[in-house]
Amino acid sequence: MAEKKLNIQDMIMKLEKFWSSKGCMIMPSYDVEKGAGTMSPYTFLRAVGPEPWAACYVEPSRRPADGRYGKNPNRLYQHHQFQVVIKPAPEDIQQYYLDSLRVLGIEPLEHDIRFVEDNWENPSMGCAGVGWEVWLDGMEVSQFTYFQVVGELDVKPTMSEITYGIERLASYIQDVNSVFDLVWGNGVLYRDIFKEPEYEHSKYAFEESNQDNLLKLFDLYEATAKRLLSQNLVHPAYDYILKCSHTFNLLDARGAVSVTERAGYLSRIRDLAHQVAVSFVEEREKRGFPLLKNAKNKKAGLEND
Amino acid sequence: MTKDYLFEIGTEEMPAHVVSRSVKQLADRTRKFLKENGLKFKDIKTYSTPRRLTILVEDLAEKQKDIDKVKKGPAKKIAQDADGNWTKAAQGFARGQGMTPDDIYFQEFKGTEYAYVHVKKEGKKASDILLGMSNIIKAMTFPTKMRWDSNDFEFVRPIHWLVSLFGSDVIPVKILDITAGRKTQGHRFLGDSVVLANADDYEDALKDQFVIVDADERKDMIVHQMNDLVKKNNWKIKPDKNLLEEVTNLVEYPTVFAGSFDKKYLKMPKEVLITSMKDNQRYFEVYDQDDNLINHFIAVRNGNKDYLDNVISGNEKVLVARLDDAQFFYDEDCKYPLSHFVDRLQNVSFHDKIGSMADKMKRVRIIGDFLAKHWKLQDQVVKDFDRASELYKFDLVTQMVGEFSELQGVMGMYYARFAGENEEVSVAIKEHYMPATSEGPLPETTVGSLLSVADKLDTIITFFGAGMIPTSSNDPYALRRNAYGIVRILLNQKWSLPFNEALPEMVDLLKGKTPAKLPKAGTQDEEIASFIRDRIKQYLQKNKFKYDIIDAVLASSQQDPIQILAAANVLQLHHDDDKFTPVVESLTRIDNILKKAKFKGQAKVDKSLFENNSENELYAGVENLQDVVDLADLYEGFVQLQPVIDQYFDTNMIMDKDEKIRNNRLAQLSNVSELADRLGDLSKLVIK
């Protein structure tokens, strides 16, 4: 383990620097609530279609049902993911990942690092992939996936997605038992930033949310997304789909959704996700898949040099 | 001349559960491929780790046998048409020999001209044939396959390298843009890549690079290291076979270690701890000499002993986090009375088309009460059953079961105890899921057995009612397993239940008490009875009854599993007796006559119409057997009765001209037949 323990923001900066050196753009977090980094348009939308894409970013991920009022040392209403997506997936992506751990001071020979099968699926977004959870001394610190289907469209070329659980990994690196004891940066602790939000969001999600209003909001967001899709306004439509998804998660946390209804809501979101994925590819095609051209030009340029 | 052939597919980490069967698949396909190509070999050895599937073909022939033979084909007039063109027959003949029609020549054979070819082929070299190994890779199947890069080709995980060595020669098999060579990869962290001079160097060369390629050897290493640890600490373990297999296929170089956790977690039900360790972390749980679970665990690292302390403390920390989580769920769940959970079952769906869990529980109570009455169970059993039926699905909405669904039933039992329910009620909640597999353990208690049968019957009744009937290939709700469980429990508890009578009664009782659709009387309830009878058949087959006995007992009008099993036992026991054949012959003779006469009349026998003593004797004999309960005694009775029956046939003309006498005799025979039916349709028996 490193001599001086890495704080969270150093950790993030090191990861950004590392992945930038592997060709990733460093993107800002996307500003609509979502349950996972995968749902950022920088992953979901960019996964479909033939264009290459390489990006990394921190994504705050809200999972209302996991809220524990800030009392559980490891479960959070909102945790942070460090997301790396590269399309097409580089041949040595596993090796890159292991190198990125070294950058964080985790030397594989001093630990037990394992790739354990975990095929990822997000039925509400029509997504499926094949891959692993990565174990560091028995702890799942990352999710590693080769996307096969996104928005019910085949992902081709295949995109690799690596999701680091920032709090998990940081707890390991800083050797703390509670995420609230983590140092975020410059001496400020995780608890100083997130303890109250955790409590308040849990209180809201489990006790104070208004089911009727949430149900109305879901319908409203869905109708808006549909209307925008019919006008080919892909990105605002996608924002409203994210809002549908988050609203559903709030309803679910409240226990307001029965098993049967659940399937119904999930299929409504999935339909929208499929449509937006299709529209995104169509719109990019109208523009001649600009990133595909870029890549070709870059390659041609290199060959001419 | 022969050489060994080594073929290795190097991949990213494969799922543990596919490794063993995939390498077997690779060997099987290769075996078939070599046989089809006429390449002789001694045997195929397999090696596998999470990152490689490897076969070593021992003593593989260097080439096929040479061919030098003359082959006779069709007659000339069939081989050529009037214009001298080759016919389809001729073309087919040539093709069949791997030649073209141009190779055909004619020669006389017994006065007729025939087409001939001289097939002279040097046997193909193995080194050429082995290039076809790429097709074997392409043909392999996996539960989940994936694409990578821009390829359409799918495999279980991306392929990174191929080794293909025939003796010391590389056979450059190609797949995608990978060409096989002699370079393999060592352990991901401890090893380096290594260039193999010879196919036979494989095992040792990789051992030097911290890869134990022989899966059995890896497993042995794990078992030995585990046993050392256990001995040293005076512990006990009960290593789960599947877990051992899985762990073996998660590592290339195993090092076993032990860790521990705070004793305070041992206050939780042991199943919670075991699930956290086993299912989530792939740890082996540890017991003391008295079989009590203790605060240690055993796990396997993919690596050597270096920095093992890091690995141990990391794993301990992870487990504690999981146990903390479980503790949170446990404490939360214990805060509420059971009614808090029971109330929520109205919103938990049993099935969309059937209704809620709460509704199911109401039906199960009605069914169970009916059964308890039918079996004259004690009042206390009924009381406990009624209470259990009000509660038994409640743990589905607890936090613990939400997190660990495999603990359903078990948590119900613990929480019920904690809430002060009595032991019978608590245990029944756990036992109602049993048997969980077709041959799994059965509920041990009476209340648990009753609840399990009622719950499963309700499932079958409502699914049939809703039209969701299993087909031969599709049974998504495991109704067969449910029905088989019912049969096993009934037999175990010696609970008699004639389904043909009981089902309509149960369905009647449910009418108006549930929104669920119920089976239609007369058609669907008969379908259910026959569905269950098929499970009785399965049970008899499983327990090695002779097929004709199974056919006989199931063809009777008897629908009670207990009676059917008893009949099968009696027939099986006496099957080889000297008397068996005459008894069966006499009884089937009766059935045949009744069938022929299409007798459906009154079976009441009028003694005043008797004409001789043989009729009186048979009458007395039948009367004697009328009240026999035990089927073994009934069979013995038939052994006694057999000469009487034969004498009856010898003395009397059954189809007498006088209708009264005729019908009286038929009535007498049908009384015998009814008795015999309790043993089965004996005409199905194959007798010598």
**Mind describing the biggest β-sheet of chain B?**
5 strands, antiparallel
In CATH, what is the homologous superfamily of the largest domain in chain A? Answer: Bira Bifunctional Protein, Domain 2
- Which percent band covers the strand fraction of chain A? 15-25%
Architecture per CATH nomenclature, i.e. the level-2 architecture of the largest domain in chain A: 2-Layer Sandwich
Strand order of the largest sheet of chain B: 2-3-1-7-8
Oligomer: heterodimer
Low-confidence segments of chain A, ≥5 residues, pLDDT <50? none
What is the H/E order of chain A?
Answer: HEHEEHEEEEEHEEHHHHH
Please give the CATH architecture of the largest domain in chain B: Orthogonal Bundle
Which structural class fits the helix and strand makeup of chain A? alpha+beta
CATH class of the largest domain in chain B: Mainly Alpha
Q: What is the number of E strands of chain B?
A: 18
Helices and strands, with pairings:
The complex is a heterodimer of chains A (305) and B (688).
Chain A: H1 8-21, E1 25-26, H2 44-47, E2 53-62, E3 78-87, H3 93-103, E4 113-117, E5 121-122, E6 127-136, E7 139-150, E8 153-165, H4 166-174, E9 183-185, E10 188-189, H5 190-208, H6 211-230, H7 234-253, H8 259-286, H9 290-304
Chain B: E1 2-11, H1 16-36, E2 43-49, E3 52-61, E4 67-75, H2 76-79, H3 88-96, E5 105-109, E6 112-121, H4 126-129, H5 133-139, E7 159-166, E8 169-170, E9 174-175, E10 178-179, E11 183-185, E12 193-195, H6 202-208, H7 215-233, E13 236-237, H8 241-248, E14 254-260, H9 270-281, E15 284-287, E16 293-302, H10 308-334, H11 338-344, E17 349-351, E18 355-356, H12 357-374, H13 379-391, H14 399-403, H15 410-418, H16 423-431, H17 446-465, H18 479-493, H19 499-510, H20 524-542, H21 547-555, H22 561-574, H23 580-597, H24 613-626, H25 631-651, H26 659-677
Antiparallel strand pairs in B: 1-3, 1-7, 2-3, 4-6, 5-6, 7-8, 9-10, 11-12, 13-15, 14-16, 15-16, 17-18
Family (chain B): Belongs to the class-II aminoacyl-tRNA synthetase family.
Keywords (chain B): Aminoacyl-tRNA synthetase, ATP-binding, Cytoplasm, Ligase, Nucleotide-binding, Protein biosynthesis
Main location (chain B): cytoplasm
